[in-house]
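Need residues for this backbone.
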């Protein structure tokens, strides 16, 4: 069976397998990125439940079909994680799985944070693990435990009793298994995008978060950028009027990196272009716009329609740059050079998503928001809102900094790290919430929603743009307004 056809069979919502701590089972995992092996045998969940305030339907209650026509969600097996705070702790003990390009740089941010200690590291490439361990010691912390014995040694890291939070920065096809293992072993987990690659996997993570009372969060979500947070606060203040439309993207020329044998090992990232047709990386663009529109906090994404161009860019780059006999010549690319998706919300708003990593293009996440009073567009940042602007000319977005910059950016004017400092602020805020016992700014429902376009855009493109229903991962919880990334500054104890 062709990988694409095998993948398509798993894009419809299905009840998650029974992996409860009381009777966990093995589940065969589809290896869409070519890593061989059967399902992961997971250890029993360890640790007590987090504090919670729950008014949702009892476990096992199956909701009726949504009013917007979306298929009914699988029966709930736990209690909602909406509004569930972390248990406060003086020090957050972190275990990191994956120490390549992303994990190897993000460890610097964890080490720079107050009240955070890196206690365990895992990567089958021993040199990468050793280099990361040296960083921990150089930062004045005790030498971390290391796990380098094969692809499944991460299970032992997750089983440790001295880890509070597991950070996953590995190739995409491992994200689901690793997040699952972390929660079953009583750990909160943060996962690089995408959270998982199939709808049944996303449902499984939602169910497991609810059953274990552990948060599962989508990191590298681009929600903590200075522009994104300023627009968010302006939207909540009504500066754009009633919101109508937004757009986000991951348009980033990665051709050179995807054909670099040392950058993406395998090369795992390029191989996804031989397996899926849809948007492989929607989270960067979807997350911020979803926040502007309070998706899962008063509105929800209901349907997606996607279209793709021909897949020409990678083959053309290969022809110009790769020697005859290179393994890449055996690959057939099916992922369109640019995918464009339109997402409809319950309130009738429209979100446009784009993905293009295989053609020449300056970096852009688009990041736009429009309403009845005006519009913001990024790359470069510009704004036009009434009554501030009346001459049909873009205004200076920086003039809104003093009033609308988020408190995180006022406290950290020049944060370190990637994506212009937003990575540092994201991790700083998450670790702050864990230390102080606060509700996280984003949760498993956000991660599942932001990731759902991966399988659904693939299905829509194969169906010539036919709309695909986006599941309500909150099971009705989206109807109630609640806080998110537009947070209030907490009082440090």
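Answer:
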């Amino acid at each position: 069976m062709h990988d694409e056809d095998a993948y398509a069979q798993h894009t419809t919502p299905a009840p998650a397998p029974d992996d409860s701590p009381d009777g966990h089972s093995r589940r065969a995992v589809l290896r869409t990125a070519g890593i061989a092996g059967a399902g992961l045998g997971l250890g029993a969940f360890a640790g007590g439940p987090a504090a919670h305030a729950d008014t949702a339907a009892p476990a096992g209650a199956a909701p009726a079909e949504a009013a917007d026509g979306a298929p009914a969600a699988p029966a709930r097996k736990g209690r909602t994680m909406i509004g569930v705070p972390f248990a406060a702790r003086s020090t957050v003990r972190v275990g990191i799985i994956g120490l390549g390009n992303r994990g190897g740089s993000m460890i610097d941010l964890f080490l720079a944070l107050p009240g955070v200690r890196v206690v365990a590291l895992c990567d089958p490439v021993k040199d990468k693990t050793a280099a990361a361990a040296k960083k921990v010691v150089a930062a004045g912390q005790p030498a971390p435990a290391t796990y380098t014995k094969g692809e499944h040694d991460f299970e032992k890291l997750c089983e440790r009793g001295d880890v509070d939070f597991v950070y996953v920065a590995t190739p995409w096809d491992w994200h689901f298994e690793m997040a699952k293992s972390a929660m079953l072993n009583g750990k909160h987990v943060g996962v690089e995008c995408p959270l998982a690659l199939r709808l049944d996997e996303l449902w499984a993570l939602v169910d497991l978060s609810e059953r274990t009372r552990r948060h599962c969060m989508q990191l590298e979500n681009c929600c903590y950028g200075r522009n994104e947070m300023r627009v968010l606060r302006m939207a909540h203040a009504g500066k754009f009027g009633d919101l109508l439309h937004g757009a986000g993207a991951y348009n980033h020329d990665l051709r050179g990196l995807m054909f670099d044998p040392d950058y993406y090992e395998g090369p795992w990232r390029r191989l996804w272009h031989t397996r899926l047709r849809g948007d492989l990386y929607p989270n960067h663009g979807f997350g911020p716009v979803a926040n502007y529109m309070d998706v899962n906090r008063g509105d929800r994404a209901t349907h997606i329609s996607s279209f793709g161009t021909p897949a020409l860019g990678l083959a053309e780059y290969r022809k110009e740059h790769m020697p005859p006999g290179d393994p890449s010549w055996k690959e057939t690319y099916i992922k369109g050079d640019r995918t464009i998706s339109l997402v409809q919300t319950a309130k009738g708003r429209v979100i446009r998503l784009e993905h293009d990593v295989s053609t020449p293009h300056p970096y852009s996440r688009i990041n736009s928001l429009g309403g009845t009073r005006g519009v913001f567009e990024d790359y470069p940042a510009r704004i036009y809102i009434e009554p501030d602007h009346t001459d049909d000319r873009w205004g200076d977005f920086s003039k809104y900094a003093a009033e609308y910059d988020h408190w995180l950016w006022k406290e950290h004017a020049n944060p370190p790290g990637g994506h212009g400092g937003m990575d540092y602020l994201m991790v700083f805020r998450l670790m702050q919430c864990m230390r102080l016992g606060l509700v996280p700014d984003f949760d498993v429902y956000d991660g599942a929603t932001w990731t759902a376009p991966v399988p659904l855009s693939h299905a829509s493109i194969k169906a010539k743009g036919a709309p695909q229903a986006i599941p309500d991962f909150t099971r009705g919880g989206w109807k109630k307004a609640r806080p998110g990334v537009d947070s209030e500054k907490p009082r440090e104890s």
